[in-house]
Design brief:
2 copies of one chain form a homodimer.
Chain A (H helix, E strand, L loop, with lengths): L15 H6 L20 H8 L4 H6 L1 H14 L5 E2 L6 H5 L4 E4 L3 E4 L17 H4 L1 H13 L6 E6 L1 H10 L7 H9 L1 H25 L3 E6 L7 H22 L5 E5 L6 H5 L5 E3 L6 H8 L4 E6 L8 H15 L5 E5 L9 H19 L2
Parallel strand pairs in A: 1-4, 4-5, 5-6, 6-7, 7-8, 8-9
Antiparallel strand pairs in A: 2-3
Amino acid sequence: MNVLLKNEGIPVENSLFIRALNRQSHDRTPVWLMRQAGRYLPEYREIRQKVRDFWELCQTPELACEVTLQPLRRYALDAAIVFSDILTIPHAMGFSLAFQEKKGPVFEKVFNHENALKDIQVDNIHERLAYVYDTVAMVRKNMPKDIPLIGFAGSPWTLACYMIEGQSSRDFDKVFQFLYHHPESMHELLNILADVVSAYLIKQAQSGAQALMIFDTWGGIMPALNYQRFNLNYIHKIVHSIRAACPETPVVVFGKGTAHWLPEIAQTGCQGISLDWTVDLAKARQLVGDKVALQGNLHPKVLLQSDEVIVREITQLLHSYGAGPGHVFNLGHGITPDVRPDAVQVLIETVRNVSKDLANG
Amino acid sequence: MNVLLKNEGIPVENSLFIRALNRQSHDRTPVWLMRQAGRYLPEYREIRQKVRDFWELCQTPELACEVTLQPLRRYALDAAIVFSDILTIPHAMGFSLAFQEKKGPVFEKVFNHENALKDIQVDNIHERLAYVYDTVAMVRKNMPKDIPLIGFAGSPWTLACYMIEGQSSRDFDKVFQFLYHHPESMHELLNILADVVSAYLIKQAQSGAQALMIFDTWGGIMPALNYQRFNLNYIHKIVHSIRAACPETPVVVFGKGTAHWLPEIAQTGCQGISLDWTVDLAKARQLVGDKVALQGNLHPKVLLQSDEVIVREITQLLHSYGAGPGHVFNLGHGITPDVRPDAVQVLIETVRNVSKDLANG
């Protein structure tokens, strides 16, 4: 478990991961995994037991730093992602969170048309988010210098969904009632969120993150005629703010259930699109051309199968992308808590071996 | 409520709905709604109270016929769909069902690799499905002659999901374990299901249905590299069997979360694709060209909003498709039980008025 200490002396901006996002040549495909720091690791569960809830873990830089680094000690990963949550922003805006076991996060009050915008606290919001910037800086300091660190945030639409619904939802009835009856208030909320998310991501980059990711978890529930106006336009705005402030920092957009919007997502100015497992890599590559890199997209359930199946499915997936740069290997969604840690080892070795062969023709 | 008795003397094969599926000219867009016979109607709830469960309602032709006709008495709909369920086929194969309030259907045993194919009862299966054919014939006899009747079935993959999981699922862990470890058994199961579904749909057409629909409810959960092999190829097989046996009967494929496969679905030989609410009609029309008609795709949550919002959203949707034939108006998913019956009236009037204006340029 000394992977963490390895430093091959390559400057981080020339790392495989950053090069892949810039669609530069490679000798193998870089790999990291969404939620690679998480409950499937016994050492994570050990730290988690020391705190009241998931939220306390996010808010304590020393512990968040430690769990960010845990997977790097076990596996030869090509990137780390800061341990945090997309709900840090609503929380800092005055929407307090309670984490309940099995139910996930629940807001103590919800955002609605009446209390609406006057209840949002934006003044000095970055002071209330300082613990995230502190975590980023601490991880950066304690991480191998050649491995890039990813900062992240939720998309404005996805954050609005949580703020209006008060929790994760199946139907999003409140969100849609708000959207259909108060489109102007929705735009006001999304605008505020886009500004805060932009500044938040830029500050993560300034604190030590080499790449930034926007999680559009709920983009896939949107009625077609609202998707661009109420979602993608705000992601576009964020990407442009980041590019202006830190032009060297690539931005990756993850969308779930948004495979039919790939060309439009590619036009936001982002450097990479992270794909869910339903998207054919060969088709996606054809659709976006050399405009953006692609990240993904192994079906997370593959990691629950035998080693033989894991090797077979990864090999097929890498071959479906084919040779050439512009691919970051990842799952199509986060690792689930029931994954065997050994399965992740098999994944990483397979990606390394198969993609080396592919790169060597 | 005398809409049912209206018969404008037009032969059913020249009805607006059938003409739209054949992309023939029209003076307005035809409209019907998935689950138009259902819990949002008080007269449906009255009938439902007389029986033990939803399943008994499906299996009693007189009652299933009655609830099929109910929405036609209230609304000027352009098609009816036989009141039934996609799980009739697994049930007839020996997988008994229990309907539990709020939980939905639960199978008394599940399909797994060990008991697998030997437990499936296919001999004389159409005798055990006769109640569906009887319902179709009864509805056809009691319906206005100029309104088309739609028969339907689930896709083999969707039926396999229910049979292997035993019930609706969030994660489909059992399904994917089966798929990844026993692909050959999965193909055997899907092949059997494709044959049964083909014969089932052909018999519905022969009993009086003028159009057929295949519901691929769970196509959207499939990993990209499995979608065509384990799903679309079987839909293709069914469409071809139907076209050979009843070449005059159009086939519509509904997929949820499969918007990124539209060109491939159009190549199954189907006449129409029914779209969920996330798909942009203008883009979809461009993608499939004049190969197939499109059905859909109002966001079902629009029907929970004010009349003003309903009119606005429908108008936008019809304009996004634009002028010209090949569109059947529908929701992007079934009507939910909390819809006001008056909202459906507003929907139908709006579709009629706006689409007439569009057709007249």
